Amino acid sequence: MQYILFGQGGSSQASGMSSEPTSSSSQQSPASPPSPSSLHLPESRRPRERSPSPMRGYLIPSPLPTRRTRTFSATVRASEGPIYKGVCKCFCRSKGHGFITPADGGPDIFVHISDIEGEYVPVAGDEVTYKMCTIPPKNEKLQAVEVVITHLAPGTKHETWSGHIISS
Predict the structure, then answer these.
(1) DSSP labels for 131-163?
(2) Burial (0-12, 13-18, 19+ Cβ within 10 Å), 153
(3) Which of 12, 17, 68, 125 gives the lowest tally of CB atoms within 10 Å of its CB?
(4) What are phi and psi for residue 97, nearest 5 degrees?
(5) What confidence tens digit (pLDDT) does each residue in 100-112 have?
(6) How many CA atoms lie within 13 A of 48 on its CB side?
């Protein structure tokens, strides 16, 4: 990272950027970088305004292994496992995840959008087949992978991934 420090009454040029002289009251010590507001950028180089986000600064990487982040060995173990049947309990396309209720009972299984095969977005009541993979870091919870919709829920509208709506 490059810092530009301005002296008393002089100007400095670095990386093709120029600045106006600063007064002695805004002189900074060499140990602290200048604040962004003290840099006088040309109009075309002003930082863009960003919309306020309540989650900015609080986002942490997700521990959920999506298809792109799952290790090769975990993918092989999951694909060699048995095929289970269940019913889609819920799925939120905007959030990118949902849950499957297993046909043989037990706790609901998490499903990520990257693990759904086929052309339709699952809705509540769709019958699905899936394989299971554990979720790190403790590998105590399960995630459905290779999810395929086998029967669309009757009387519901289904959406394709491209946005077309189809009634079943």
Answers:
(1) EEEEETTT--EEEEEEEEEEEPPTT-EEEBTTS
(2) middle
(3) 68
(4) -155, 170
(5) 999 999 999 999 9
(6) 2
